[in-house]
Specification:
The chain is of the alpha/beta class. Helix 2 packs parallel to helix 3 and helix 3 packs across helix 5. The radius of gyration is 19 Å and the shape is globular.
Amino acid sequence: MSARPGVGLPGTVTMREAEQLAAEAENAGASSVWVADVRREPYLTSAAALRATTSVTVGTDVAVAFSRSPAATAQAAWDLAGYGNGRFVLGLGSQVGPTLLSRFGVEADHPAARIRDYVMAVRACWDAYRKGHGRYEGEFYAIRQPIFSPGADEGWPAIPIYIAGVNPVMTTVAGEIADGFAAHMFCTPIYLDRITRPALARGAARAQRDAPPVLMPLVVGRDRASLALQLTTYTVPAYRRVLDESRLRDEADAILMALADRRRTEAARIIEERCLDQLGVAVLDELPERVKLWSGYADAIGLTVPWYGLDAAAQVALFRDVLRALERTLE
């Protein structure tokens, strides 16, 4: 993986904006351009980024897996890989159950076992596309006719799959089957070293392979307050283990209680004062130092901007300032 940081496009960008900003990112020296699944359709946005660039990796970090069938995901990723001449990376995440239901109206039990089956189904579809025939029968998914229009796509580029995770069960599955691990910005160096890396190693050992590389996103803001506000969106019971394992158990209790009482400002204050320095964030003026710090724990860094509390124009303006800061870092 490249030592140069990549960048994540703002979550609200239109396809035209994605083209422009991806081109600017490539010109600024970014190694990769990542697309989130928070507002726009991530595969269409990825196509726009691929269209405007020639050399950078473009990928989803991450697309929600269970809101789409594995066959639909396989088709989208396959066409993007061909369109980008092998520059596309498929990043997948399960999304927290309540959010999955409220956003997409779907439920998915046993997410770790399901994502394993999902990835196997996607790869089976790709194998069928390449050969012109095939099928998949798994624990959760059965795709009996992935080839509807006859023909084989010989010579198609390979597609790496990254899996996102926070808790160790999902992370172990990523270690077993993924080509890369998409870490969450709601992470600390302690958690990455003590929980994430060992879980990846366990999964890799199960499959008798090397553990996949870790992509670590850093949310870059103009000030600590905006970063703390963004992180309140990720302080949920499913992720509190990150704080617990990082000796921040009392802080986790206080933040979750404040959020349950609809006191988001108070929750953000606690994060800013007592947790922020350990999490995957960077104030713009301190970007080189934070990239250096996290590069000691992760194999690749992706720089993104907050989406909570900033309108679309402010997100784009901040993203361009991040690109300027990246250029200075690479000089």
